[in-house]
Queue: 4 jobs
Job 1
Amino acid sequence: MVNSDRLWTRIQELSLIGQTSDNGVTRFAYTDIEKEAYEKVKHYMQEAGLQVTYDSIGNLIGTLPGADNLPTILLGSHIDTVPNGGKFDGSLGVLTAIEVLQSLQEQNIKLNHPVKVIAFKDEEGSRFGFGMIGSLAVAGNLKADHLQWKDANGISVHDAMVKHGYDPNKIQEAKMDNIKLYLELHIEQGKVLEKENVPVGVVTGIAGPLWLKFSLKGEAEHAGATPMNQRKDPLVAASLIISETEKLAKKYEHAVATVGTLSLTPGGVNVIPGSVEFTIDIRDINEEILDQLEKEIRDYASKVVEERGIHMSIVELQKIAPVLCSSTIQETIQESIAELRFPVISLPSGAGHDGMQFKDSFPIGMIFVRSQDGISHNPKEFTSKEDVKIGAETMLLTLSKLDQR
């Protein structure tokens, strides 16, 4: 089985890189902090006896060779974070994959297939507002246009890559071929497993995230001198749209819609706002429902701004179709959980993951590990050492079974 003490120690060590004052973690893509974290993970991969390299965009890859004539099994997750996030999101998947391969080698258990552990670049999208850069590249779908997205300081993905020694003209070299499957372990980031009192679960599919940016323009005027019936206040219009978005999402069983950013100008206490920008993150496991909810939000927003004389533009920042996990991989995970004598729970993922990028390339599967109180993207994010161990042992058994099939 796995060395749970070693895995737990690595989780704690990695969390110190980018640690915030309240024990959260902030690690953004193409920063010195992230580079330090990658070098730490690189060291862990080398300790595990893996052949380690960075690809053309900065994904960190550790390889355990197998038979040359067999396709590669891909394991992994990410080590970047949201602002002041937790220590388990993403990192647990990378470190568990490393631990599984190290434990197998220490027990002289040979796998037939080559296996690669990959720490994907910028899954969260926290810096540039555009996520899954690394997995997009591995799928062969990262385009030059994607590299023009900019952070809050006006630095583009392109320029950040160049600064850290990567060539934006070689992004297609990161594409991987001859992959048998992709398997990822991740914290649940929800309360289903905790409610069912089980440590691990089988992911049935991943809800598709749709990110929209709304820009509303009205007229900035004096707050005291402008009568209420003569105002073109984009913030009031935005508040109506935001409120209705919540109501619309609640109509559907698994749909969620979240306003995550909101800004207004000029921002004076005695000035009616002239412009407002906000984002809406819409998700559902069913693509038809996702599309229907988007239409309803757009239709309502159009009605509001027309009634109030507000100019509106909507930009689609990102749209990824929902993805179903491979039935074969699901069944194999179920067998592994049953072998460890735990109840088998299957559930969808409301959060997006790198595996979504591979839906047209090769089969994917995911293992969820219980999250305390369902908290994630927060310094309070926590998964117990015992649950981490059970998750790792589930992954080891699953990998071993998939290697034989």
Job 2
Amino acid sequence: MSFLVGAILCLIFVFVPIRAQYTVPEVTIQGLNPKGIRVFLPDSSDNFPLTSFLFDGLLYKENAKTIAKENLVGRIWGFGAKQALGGWLFEDPFVELKLNQVIHYHVFVSTGFGDVGRPNSDGISNFTLPGYCVMNRVYVVNSLVDPNARGPQCGETATKVRGREVCAGETIFEDNFDTFRDDKWQIAHYIPIDHPEHPFVSYQRLQVNPTVTVENGTLRISPKLQQDLFQKQNKSILSGTLDLTSGCTELRTCAMSSIGVDIVPPIVSGRVTSARFAFTYGTIHVRAKLPQGDWLYPEILLEPLSKKYGSLNYASGVLKVAMVRGNTDVNTERYSNNWLVGGPIINSRCRSALEFYHKKIEGDSLWGDDFHIYSLKWSPEEIVLSVDGEEWGRYTPGATGLRSWLPASCRGDWFELLNNGGIMAPFDDHFYITLGVAVGGIVEFADGLTTGEQIPKPWRNRGRKAGFSFWQDKENWYPTWTQPDLLVDYVKVVAL
């Protein structure tokens, strides 16, 4: 049986239904005010990928009791376009609909590609397209919506993006690092003296031998020695001044001088943030190769934009998409490069209250040996961590919220502010993306660690000389920095 639709140029389209176990998805029809119609067809099963979608409707008068010729007003006909979010959308901006009008329609979908037959005596060829039909459906125009309203192809989502509306399943941020995009990323240039982990780094945007580069489709963030930069200026890390005032991205932390054991950060590193993009709820995927080397660790984070619950010690929270400490051989396994951790951090001093999920890589491999896809799904109900598509951690706050997981010893004056939020507080605000490399600090590496060479960790986390003691041990840790860079292949954020 053939379903004759119409002629275009020198072809007559002939649609040939196929007999198979397949159900054409139901379409969603939306009438627009003052003119227009949208018809959305959801995606089909993966076993039947669609190649085209045709809507063919006859428009009848308001309150028409019968599908009769005398009630016919016009025809609505055309092919739909494939949508980036999935499904197919047919639009006609010119048809004028009225309430209670009736549309009698057919839907045809194709799962293949057609053939052009030989021309007939009039020089016209049949174009035969195999597919599936839904015949004799009826839609009554019961409402007319603003053309700027959410379309039927744009599903409701809990995801929010600063400054715009988004749809379920929409890719709301993506960078494959074909080049460095200043419109997407800001390179940090400051001294993080108020960073709750107090890493032994300054973040600098260097013009020569930069810490942040893009090459061969990969973002590279490279830590360097501050002393190497100082030597070019005949300065010493033990007595010099680090002045990042020009171009400083954090005005309160732009310069410092070494005085006694309080030395400037011994490591220069890179950090980028999605300065113009922030979101609430969604799934972030980061394909990355993590740094290896003693006392290194990556920063693959979601950080709060407004810090409405406070800024001290992660009071407004931070979401670690993935974190692996760089030591390849250490006496306590959880601090080595085969131990993946991540998830929500509410208070940097008490992170062990939430860090009870981990994933150890199989065999003798290390996480930093190769690229992996690190994912974090953040919803109003839970936080789910995955690596290479495999779930390894799930945080579900329940009725009392994530804050209830913190023991009393972790709570301070800031804690009461969390009661102003919902069960996901403080993770119910806009967060932005951060990528970087940090070193040492007073949180990530416990006291008492030793490397495989039985060399003790050179600083105490509560010691006044932490950064100085770390620098004095350079001859032991620096030779292990054979792969100190964070490499990022892509970042992608998808709405729920």
Job 3
Amino acid sequence: MSHSVSVLPYLVKFAPKTPHQFDGYINVHSFDLDHTLIRPKRPKATFGNAPHDWKFMEYDTGPAINKLVEILKADTHACFVIFTNQGGVLADPSTSKSFLNFEKKILLILKAVEAVDSGEEFLNRLWIYSSTKKPAALSKKIPTLNSKPGKVNKHSTSGKSNLKPLAALILLSEKFDEMRKPATGLFVECNRDLKEILSPTDGPVNWKYYCGDAAGRSTDFSDSDKIFALNTGVSFKVPEDIFNKK
């Protein structure tokens, strides 16, 4: 397998096992996943219903993967990052059906990429960061630490004040919120990883753009991709800006 998988309750990361050794700096081309790079096989479906239910998006220039390989060949410093919200994927526990299906889907996508021209080289430059579903227990309102003095917290099992578990719950809940676009947690995590790769040369990480379909247009379901780019300070592009240009 080309990538290692790191799983936290609020974050799933696929990183290349043998990342490309960049000389001096990295140019990051970043993308949303669903309805930007892939879509369900069924024409009117919003999300796939099984790990195999996907195909590469088709644009004027052909399948999305073809354009990505073209970018790779034109930019020797190119790195590719996918940021995706997966609100239906529960990663805690990592044995959940939704997580196992998502993992299998990503592995199938990576396998398909490997089969195209320059696919292996592309995989060595590809990172995937996904936010996941907040468990129902954390979706409920969690009392604050400075609530009424002396009040026994409902999360306490001892009948006494139990601030450490409560603080941990609050921090964990906040992590889920931080990782979900348009919040910037996925970007921060990725930027840190890429800088570690460059640490021997101390070169810059140049974020070229973030490309996504949720741009707040009349036909879009939201503007979350556009706001994500705004929040991270990265130039925003809709898929047509990238994939319909020859």
Job 4
Amino acid sequence: MGLTDNLFPGWLLLVCGLLFAGVLVTAVRQTSWAGLRSSPRLQHCLFGAAVALGSLWQLRAGLSPGLSIHIFGMTAVTLMLGWPLAVFSGLLALVIVVVTGHEPLSLFAVNGLITVMVPALVTHGIMRWERHRNFRNFFAYIFFCGFFGAGAAVASAGVTMVLLLWLTGVYDWYHLVHDYLRYLPLFVLPEGFVNGTVVTGLMVFQPELLTTLDERRYRQ
């Protein structure tokens, strides 16, 4: 998200660190490690997605510190791997971004929470909602989980960052609305398009790579 050192007070870093640790522990507990070890394809997807995200996150447009713009791509990864493995893949990608100097190591937990965990959990929630509604048309998975899910994920991450910047007094509300929030819909559209296109391509050509896709439900 284009954060810089000393942008947030210590108490906020502590709170974000605790939330980060809580989500990470939950992801560890919900991961089938035996399944991951026995599936080379899943391992390739996890590490391949990390490299792809790490490369994608190098491309960004800077506004103000904490308000940079880039494609997240977490929705497609979450639908491929499930949210726990998507979190690990995203954090590996964030390590790449830190190593290349685009994000500070001191804000790894904040970046991990906003850039990786919030989008993954929002996508997972929308996927669970789509599954609960029991839609029988596979376009529902593509539209709600892929296109809409990606837009909601990046919007949630953006709003979360704005609230943190506002509540800690880094920027006033007028600055945040004028320089970021009013442009947020413009970020949502390309995020939805990119992730939705990737999910559509995988569903058509390699549906077995989408671990969250229940093909049997759409064949009935």
